Structures are given as structure tokens and as C-alpha cells.
Amino acid sequence: MICLVLFVPVMVVLAGLFVNIKVQQRVLVAREKLIDAKMAKAHEAIKQFEQLQANRDAMWKRALTTAELLEPVSRSMLLASLTNNLPAGVSLLQLSAIQKEPPRPRSQMDVAKTSKYKRTRAKKAAAETEPSREKLLRMHIGIEGIAPSDIEVAAYIERLSNSKLLENVTLVESREREAEDRTFRQFRLTAMLKEDIHLTDEDIDKIRAKL
Considering Cα of 207, then 208, then 210, then 211, what sign does the dihedral take? Predict the structure, then answer.
């Protein structure tokens, strides 16, 4: 009788523990399913965002190609302006004109070091605030030539700086050269086409007339 009396409460306690464990298991399974559903939605959202980024990059490449074909100032006008401003005795050896996008700010470069979730949110925020990338294109110009002395080089830099087309005219290198018992200066300059430059018909006629 004593054993039976003790057996009943033990079985009740064991049954209660078994029911409690089963309830906790069901709760954990439900939470796991909920987390899996949220992870699946997040993964789908990230996948869609990456697809949008890929489409945007493709559109950006097409925009770059279009921008290169539709330059604000034609290469012939740019060449004419560079030639018209040459001081006496100065000759051009090589020219280059390339459209480039300015480097990304450091804050955007640091995005790559964060987690995938944070990187996705940061990209979304940057996409909402950054200006159109087509508007960021700048024409970078490289100029190489020879001059009798640094005086003519300085005069050329001054003329280009005062022109309607160029800005940030910078001397990269100027060194002395000799050829056929004559001494001259070989120089390299860099410049940028002014932003939002628009030539009027009068400006174009003046450049052509000087040329």
C-alpha cells in the first residue's frame, strides 16, 4: 500500500514533466518555423536587391556609353581651344580626354566590410541619397608638349585656366630636354572640363575663327 501510495504522485509528477516538455518542444518548433520564414523572406529581399543592383549596373554601363557618345563639348572644339591658346614656340605632342566617375567616398567603401544585412541596408540608404551617377562624369584631359622655356609653359597654363572650357589646370611635370644642340622644356599638364559647360553659337564661331 505504501508503494502504491508513493507510486501515484511519482507518476503524476512524471506525467506533468512529460506534458511540459512536449509543450516546450511545440513552442520551440513553432519559433523555429517562424524564424525560418523570416530568414526566407530576408533572403528573398536580399536576392531581389542584388538583382536590382545588377540591373542598375547594366544601365549605368549603357549610360556611360551614351555619355561618351553625347559629350557636352565635341573633341574638335576642345582640340581647337587647346591649340588656339598655345603661346609662340609651344607645340603639343599628345592629348588625351577621358570621362571618369569621381572616386567613391570612404563611407561607401567601408560598406564592404560590414555584414551582409548591414551592407544591404547601407546600399539602400546610399541609393536613395546619392545623385545620378551620370551627372558625376567629368572629362579629364591630359596634355603633353614642348616649349622653349618655363615662361611659355606658365603662359600656356594661365591661358588655359582663363578659358571657358577648362578648370583645375595643373602642371604635372616639366623637365629639360636637348635635341640637335637645342634646349627645350618638355611638360605634362592635366585639366578638367568645367561642369555644366554649354557653348553658345557665338563661342563656337569664335573658336572656329581663331582656328
Answer: positive
